[in-house]
Amino acid sequence: MNGKIFRGSLDTIVIKLLTDNKEMYGYEITQKVKELTGGTMNITEGALYPALHKLEGKGILETQTRSIGNRMRKYYSLTKKGKKESVNYMKEMQSFLDQMQFLLNGKNNLA
Amino acid sequence: MNGKIFRGSLDTIVIKLLTDNKEMYGYEITQKVKELTGGTMNITEGALYPALHKLEGKGILETQTRSIGNRMRKYYSLTKKGKKESVNYMKEMQSFLDQMQFLLNGKNNLA
DNA sequence: TAAACATACCTAATTTTCTTAGGTATGTCA
DNA sequence: TGACATACCTAAGAAAATTAGGTATGTTTA
Q1: Structure pTM?
Q2: Do A13 and A90 meet the contact criterion of CB atoms below 8 Å apart?
Q3: Residue B92: its chain A contacts at CB < 8 A?
Q4: By CB neighbour count within 10 A (0-12 exposed, 13-18 middle, 19+ buried), where does A57 fall?
Q5: Predicted local confidence at residue B34, as pLDDT
Q6: In whole angstroms, what is the distance from residue B80 CA to residue B32 CA?
């Protein structure tokens, strides 16, 4: 993913998108993130596909492969477990965002 | 660093602290972050020292070693180059925080 | 109609950045 | 004196990315 800072946030992005959209396929996810961020964030396929496989292996995502014409698409959706755990992913990310925002904007040199 | 999500943000945290505090030594940085975040973020020394050495190698930080009694402290501060580049580090992090906040809170499924 | 580009999946080698688990040495406090 | 804090460090391994491919179909354009 470009923007450089992301390491660790890809899983959370995927899970959030699948919370909002029920099911999505890999390529669709890359396009959606590009669209939502006005091109600022770009998920590379080399990062995304292994991440999807990992989340499936963990039982957080499940897949359903469908043929669209002559093309095949692998749709990902949250499992029951994934829906439960998504809350923790969001909380952890929000906590990080808050702490980081505080470190950047807080008046850190008052002492 | 604990919290799991941070990968990539350590450099920015260090540079921000050195923007506010002129000069700090390694151990002081770990304590300061713990203090500022109420113990939520903990920078491990195994992550910090290599990061400091890397930033020094890049010409972003410079060091001055001082003896405090029989103890030695290695003080880090921003170089001229480091001060210039710090702006970009902050901008990039802020942009990430904004985008991420939007992805988490934005109404992503209106379409 | 052939070339280029978009869609759609994937992997492997390498790099970056972290965790874990040490090591060394001095200072302080119970 | 033994534990804990201060203060520096490194090395092995894991995790998650980048980079650079590969395969195949569908669409657009020169």
Answers
A1: 0.91
A2: no
A3: 3-5
A4: exposed
A5: 94
A6: 24
Query: In the prediction, which pLDDT does B3 show?
Result: 54
Residue nearest to nucleotide D15 (CA to C1'): A8
Task: Specify which residue's alpha carbon is closest to the C1' of nucleotide D16.
Answer: A7
Q: Return positions of chain C under 7 A from a protein CB.
A: 7-13, 17-23, 26-27
3-class state of residue A51 by DSSP: helix
Domains, chain B: 9-104 (1.10.10.10)
Mean pLDDT of chain B: 91
Question: Can you give the distance from the CA of residue B48 to the C1' of nucleotide C8 in angstroms?
Answer: 41
Report the pLDDT value the prediction gives residue A110, as an integer from 0 to 100.
43
Please report, rounded to a whole number, the percentage of residues in chain B having pLDDT higher than 90.
Answer: 81
Question: Both tokens of residue A84?
Answer: 């439960």
Q: Are strands A71-78 and A61-68 parallel, antiparallel or unpaired?
A: antiparallel
**Banded pLDDT at A109 (limits 50, 70, 90):** very low
* Tens digit of each residue's pLDDT (9 = 90 or more) over B82-92: 999 999 999 99
Mutate to test the interface with A, among B1, B100, B101, B107 (most CBs of A within 10 A): B100
How close does chain B come to A69, measured CA to CA in Å?
24
CB of A42 within 8 Å of any CB in chain B?
no
